[in-house]
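Predict structure. Chain length: 83.
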Amino acid sequence: MTTIALTLLALSALVLSVRVLIGPSVPDRVIAIDALLVVIVSGLAVDAAASDRTAFVDVAVVVSLLGFVGTGVAARFIEKRGS
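Prediction complete.
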């Protein structure tokens, strides 16, 4: 079951990476990066649950916080820029 979850997360990460590279606008790319961070955190959570390693949970929390702050900064940048 873990293999299926990680495979689906990898597939969604691939699709989101394409959106980041060819996104038509900056807000589209920011949303894709934010979704990609959610996929990464989900992958870390699945791996932590499968291997019983708590260190991955700590890493997932840090990545989530950085993603949240980064999305807020990017939104403020886009708002001031007027794009």
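Summary: The first helix runs from residue 2 to 22.
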